[in-house]
Design a protein that fits this description.
By secondary structure, the protein is an all-alpha fold. The chain has one domain: Farnesyl Diphosphate Synthase, CATH 1.10.600. The chain contains 15 helices and two strands. A two-stranded antiparallel sheet has the order 1-2. Strand 1 and strand 2 form a beta hairpin. It is globular. The two termini are 17 Å apart. About 2% of the residues have low confidence.
């Protein structure tokens, strides 16, 4: 039976509870409107996987300290800021089944709330002189923005190569998980080489995580997003890129035409999904995902055995076996 997140986080369960309390107090504001929105953000938090990566990485590399709590808070603040801004950019009304900030309070307020969260994160680091942690997370935020813009620039042509796809997901998704692991290592006073190795570990986890997310688009069971949503949003995912590589010129044109012009037609989208399945796109993406998973476990083997290491390995396994 697959492990649940609660079991995986056992070695850092008390730290996660304390982190939640510290994070809630950090989100408080004297301005009533900000305080109201911060309370809403805290209430709709997800699986808390990012803080788990920070705390478990710190435990693997040394001792969990106050700097670890600040590092986890910094990542949550800057990442939440980017999500609030993303919802404005995407004109999205929902996130994880809840109304987005822009849906409830409109775009102007959402942009300012994102700016507020960003400033809280920056000040948290500057006030405690955690410049090394700030550098790690700021680099990830820059990469996430670049990845998003790179994807937007290439989306219209639908000519994304496999290499370009890897570059996009490395920046958009993997850089954040890499920063969680690097921040954990740095907060535990790991040396430069240790921080680099943990970042490498997180990067491979993040790549596997995103490919798993791509595969959900072709699933049949209850998942976190509607079937075919990436195709409807004209996003090029690995199963589709592989399928186009294997297709004849006429098949390529037909698939691209559907994605460009008929992406809201469920019957046409289903045609693309069926073609991806028969061309081996799913199996190919799964094999690449497992390659990245294996690379991450190879890096983790370099560290001494501990409960933290065991749980970190289980958390990686969870990311590629999750059902949503």
């Amino acid at each position: 039976m697959a492990l649940q997140l609660k079991e995986i986080q056992a070695p850092v369960a008390s730290e996660m509870i304390e982190f939640e309390q510290k994070f809630r107090s950090l989100m408080k504001s004297k301005v009533f409107l900000i305080d109201k929105i911060m309370s809403y953000i805290v209430k709709r938090k997800g699986k808390q996987m990012r803080p788990m990566f920070v705390f478990l990485s710190a435990g693997v590399c040394g001792t969990i300290s106050e700097r670890t709590y600040r590092g986890a808070s910094l990542i949550e603040l800057l990442h939440t800021a980017s999500l609030v801004h993303d919802d404005v950019v995407d004109d999205s009304n929902f996130r994880r089944g809840f109304f987005s900030i822009n849906a409830l309070w409109k775009n102007k307020i959402a942009v300012l709330v994102g700016d507020y969260l960003l400033s809280r994160g920056l000040l948290l680091s500057v006030d405690h002189e955690d410049y090394d942690l700030l550098k790690i997370v700021s680099e990830a935020v820059r990469e996430m923005s670049e990845g998003e813009l790179l994807q937007m620039a290439k989306a219209r042509s639908l000519d994304i190569t496999e290499d370009l796809y890897y570059e996009v997901i490395r920046q958009k998704t993997a850089s954040l998980i890499a920063s969680c692991c690097a921040v954990g290592a740095a907060s535990a006073e790991g040396d430069k080489e240790t921080v680099i190795r943990m970042k490498e570990f997180g990067l491979n986890v993040g790549m596997a995580f995103q490919i798993k997310d791509d595969l959900f688009d072709y699933g049949t069971h209850e998942i976190g997003k509607p079937l075919g949503i990436d195709i409807k949003e004209k996003k090029m995912t690995l199963p589709l890129i592989y399928t186009l590589q294997q297709s004849t010129s006429s098949e390529k044109r037909r698939i691209k035409r559907i994605v460009k012009s008929n992406s809201q037609n469920q019957k046409k989208v289903q045609e693309v999904i069926d073609h991806v399945k028969t061309s081996g796109g799913i199996e190919y993406a799964e094999s690449v995902m497992h390659d990245f998973y294996n690379k991450s476990t190879e890096v983790l083997k370099e560290f001494p055995n501990s409960d933290y290491k065991t749980s970190l390995g289980q958390l990686v396994q969870f990311t590629i076996e999750r059902s949503k």
